[in-house]
Amino acid sequence: MKKDNDIAKFIVLFIPWAISCLFSFAPGTSFMIAWLGSFFIFFMTLTGKVKPLPTDRTIPEQVMRPIFIVQIIFAGYMSCTSIFYFLSVLGYQYFSRAGAALLIDSDKLALTAECQRYYCLGHAAFAAGILYFMNYPVEKKYYIEKDILANLLMKTAVITFPVSEIFLRLPGLSQFYYQLSSLSFIAGTLALAFAIPLKKIPNTLICLSLYLFNFYQATISGFKEPIIISVLVLGLFLYPSYKKIVIVTFGPALILLFIILPSYVASFRQNAWSGDENAQDASKIALDASLNNNDNTNWEFLVYRLSEIDMFTLFVKSTPSQIGFYKTQLLEQSAIAIIPRVFWPSKPITEDLVMQRVYDAGVVNQNSSVSAKPAFIVDAYLSAGTFGVFIFSFLYGAIAQIIALKAEKLFGGYTLGTALIFSGLFQIFWRGLSFEFLINSVFWSYISMLVIFKILRSRNILKEV
Fold it and tell me: How does DSSP classify residue 57?
């Protein structure tokens, strides 16, 4: 597919945001236009109407590319999950009014609609950034022999796991643990998806053991995302070979997880993080609680935990009316975060830098032990308002796409380049955290990608075309 950018078609992506701004005087209508606008953007981009999709592979065989997996998770989480908060602001619990005489907070509704407009703008700019630089197929400079691919994936999983644990225990280098741990998980899951259809029993057993171990670690992490991603990624990797089975099993499994995880995680944190129970016992208690949960737990999760719009409204309320835009300050702090602590022992703690703007905006009390780090779209807004949301979101999509192309070029195509290296090392693109954490992770993941490439070339595993 040649690089074919029709600017007029790119502008179409921004029409929902523009219309929602015209209806800002009617917050409820404005919110719905912006919210539905993200589904319009999904439709226009995932059907190839703005720019043709890559044709070098079928859609199921290229879902790990940025236009698919990154956009669906990042933009879907950012823009689409806010509907439950919106319903709550209107006085609903699920789809029924909580009280007939309940008054709607007009200021809160207006802030909610404003934030949704930023989400819609961010989604449009993010998608435009991906599409503008999307240029497949990639010219291959290196290749790997197909008969060693399955074993290479398994070896990568086996090797990177203990290496990640070593980094976790080395003072000042723990930041490298997360990317290598993620790479190990992706490599093991991809290797399992390769081994099953090839009927390689030893590989299947080893990779299945790794997968189950990673899934268990996810269940005792105290977070929902690792559990969901564990199931989602395996389903995506198996789908090209077992379409019907994956739809029948993994679809319902993901729905079930969304139903039981809110109460599971809440119970687990209450017991494990307080020190009352060890992780194993807390997990058993949490599982029992999740199977006997009540609707209020799930509704609170849908309103306040599934989406981050409640926190976004607090930032928009205080900036710039009380606190000025940060301009380049967050980028400067991100540059500081990149330097490994082993080279700068007195380096400011990144968590403290991030949380300071949370405290300044009054999102949480400084004496509270709660961590409420702003999402990427919030930092984009805090830096430069509407323009910041546009430019940083565009760069976010562009950089993700450029790195994905580079990975395919270095590692001989989609399987190693995108499915393994990009999805493993750069999984942070799926969620989009605060600037400091995101930029630090992407920078060192890129360095790690080049190091892995050099290792594979030196061992002649990657051969020149």
Answer: S
Tally of domains within the chain = 1
Residue ranges making up the domain that contains 291: 7-464
Name the residue among 30, 64, 68 with its Cα closest to residue 48: 68
Residue 2 lies in a domain: no
Angle, helices 376-410 vs 329-338, to 10°: value is 50
Q: What is the pLDDT of residue 83?
A: 94
* Confidence class for position 43, pLDDT limits 50, 70, 90: very high
Residue with tokens 């981009």: 45
Rounded to an integer, what distance in angstroms lies between the CA atom of residue 377 and that of residue 315? 11
Confidence at 276, pLDDT banded by 50, 70, 90: low
Rounded to 5°, angle at Cα 423 from 420 and 426: 125
Establish if 368 belongs to a structural domain: yes
Residue 144: half-sphere exposure toward Cβ, Cα within 13 Å: 24
SS3 96: strand
Q: Which residue has the tokens 């009927």?
A: 199
Residue 182: inside a domain, yes or no?
yes
**Nearest Cα to Cα of residue 167 among 149, 180, 186, 151:** 180
Only one residue has tokens 């540059």, namely: 335
427 CB-near residues (< 8 Å, 6+ apart): 182, 186, 229
Distance of alpha carbon 404 from its chain centroid, rounded?
15
The whole model's pTM is what? 0.91
Of 99, 126, 149, nearest to 389 (Cα)?
Answer: 126
DSSP H/E element including 97: strand 96-97
Residue 165 makes CB contacts below 8 A (sequence gap 6+) with 177
Could you tell me which residues come within 8 angstroms of residue 92 by beta carbon, excluding any fewer than 6 positions away?
98
Task: Indicate whether 340 pLDDT > 70.
Answer: yes
Q: What is the 3-state secondary structure (H, E, C) of 138-173?
A: CCCCEECCHHHHHHHHHHHHHHHHHHHHHHHHCCCC
The 3-state DSSP class for residue 412 equals coil
pLDDT in tens, 8-22: 889 999 999 999 999
Phi, psi of 443 (to 5 degrees): -60, -50
Residue 349 is encoded by which pair of tokens? 């703690």
SS3 content of the chain, % helix, strand, coil (to 5): 70, 0, 25
**How many whole angstroms from its chain centre is CA 261?**
18
**Which tens digit of pLDDT belongs to each residue from 78-99?**
999 999 999 999 988 877 776 5
Contacts of 93 (CB under 8 A, 6+ apart): 299
How far apart CA 209 and CA 214 sit, in angstroms, is: 9
